[in-house]
Design goal:
heterodimer; A: alpha/beta; Rossmann fold; two-stranded antiparallel ribbon; about 5% strand; B: alpha+beta; Heat Shock Protein 90; 5-stranded mixed β-sheet; 9 strands; about 25% strand; globular
Amino acid sequence: MSNLYAKKRFLVVDDMPTARDALRTVAQNIGAFSVEFAANYQDALYRIRNNTPDVILCDYMLGEGRSGQQLLEELRRFNLLADENIFMMVTGEQSYEQVVSAVELVPDDYIIKPFSPEKLLLRLDRIVAKKEFFKDYYQAKRKQEYAEALALLAQKRDSEAGRPYRFEILRQQAETEMASGDAKTAEETYRAILNNYEFPWARAGVARSLHKQERLSEAREEIERVVSSTPTFFDAADLKASICMAQGEAEEAQRVLDEVAKKTPRNYLRKRLLAEAATLNGDDEAARAAMADVIANDTMPGAVQPEDRLALARSQVNANDLISAEKTLVGLKESELQNLTLDLQASYAALLAISSPGKGKPRFAGLRPALMSAALESTPRLDILRAALTLSDHELADHQAETLMEADDAKKTFGSTRKLYALHGREMDFRNIQKQVALKRIKHETPAA
Amino acid sequence: MQKLLDILASGIHDAKNQLFQAESTLIEAESKHGIDLGEARYAIEAAAQRLSRTLTAYRLGRHDQALAVVPTVVCDLCDEVALAQRHHLAAAQIRLEIDCQAFDEWPLDRDLLTDILNNAVQNAGRFAKSCVRLSAAMDDGGLLLRVEDDGPGYAELPPAGGTGLKLAKTLAALHARKERHGHLHLDNGGPLGGARFTLWLP
């Protein structure tokens, strides 16, 4: 039929043997010479990791609570799928169309069973043509040369050949603007798309870029629209939860994530987010359960990182299960510890100082000068605060509290900070720090021109 | 009621999987024996299409059918209808002409639209003398899709439509953009002189 696909390596992913055979027949009929099989999700991941096929034909329903969409998300998460590879979802029902019309992360195309070899060929040819059209852009994007990538997209947008891809060009433009850190421009690009049609993924893009710009209540308003109109768009729920956390509404964040996590029990990025929300919300048991699940079941090599073990230890410390926390922390290898960033080293030392003072206090004391001066994220700051309060190191504790309240994400950590001070009977001190920070802010604020 | 919908949807899902296996068996036989089983494959795909359409109609009846709107290349949409129908029409000595003058991506429910157009071309093919034409053009800030034939035209207007026509009408109206809704218009005449099926999408 065609020899364009003769040299391409195909991978057919389907849990039903007869369906696999049917897909192979169709692939061979369009000239594919090499067609491999994967019978399930894990098998597919293994094969793709070892030797990425040129074309993946993946059934949407993979059994064992797994879907082709999850596979696609996992491949993107671990960067296992280059823009040049083709991922085509195969589905027998219409429910996947609802997913693909809403979400931000989409396959190159999807095709509904039954279909003829001629139809598959037509679809594949189009994908190949599209990838050829975007080829130089993909290369610039991969090298993170964002200015170059955006210039190429602008060129394509104005070209006659770009007419069939006008939405795709804008979508890529918005994503590149986000990746380059220009959330303001990304917001404008997403709004330009919405000005043409109300795509849920574009509305979520507006919310994401507003969140990046710290315009939280606007971001919240936008994402609420998406979540209520498109319940199948789970990533929108994640985004809503992140915005809620930033607004200091950890309880709502946990509620939203809990609901979605029940529908996607094997999405471990979501479980991590759930643990974060539960921790901020003071639901230590939920945080512990979520992190234990992540560490036991997120089986991709390299998926479980030291920071996940730290998150588990954090939830154990919060739940006052110090023996388990110590066990979790001691489980980290010395070689892993040496490669940690200062943020993670700080969390490790702080959590160990609480759960195992004998081992932890010297390490924590050694880091103290850095903890008094370095720029740190809010999560390690809360850990340091917790340890410093436990060790009655008021100077160190108050410095963390002050920095947390001055930070951009102060709303996110406010509740936890106050709770920790209350736990150690220092509410009054907390209120004084709060007052000082407020005064400082007024002094520093220059009147608008 | 949700349970009944689930039962229907999963039954149709399984049936379509089996039809896909049947089609692949035919494809194997075609390449093994060098024969053309195009009409049998066409019948299989038409059966699958009919199943999907029935489910869509049921969902519409329950007001439970949301569109899945994706940016779609209009000319590709026309090409797919041509691919699905041309062989079958040629067997009845009917020519299918495609005239696509809409070159941009357009937001629409690709799969439902493909089904609507396939159905319209099938209907036209049943009455055409020698020619069916599918055309696409930009019109009044929207997309105009038209299927016409050189047959005797609709016997009555509006025609007493079957499921396909009713579905087309409802699905057109569900397409909304910038506070405008799509619509379906059926009449006789036009350059080919027969029935004319006109769908406008915002």
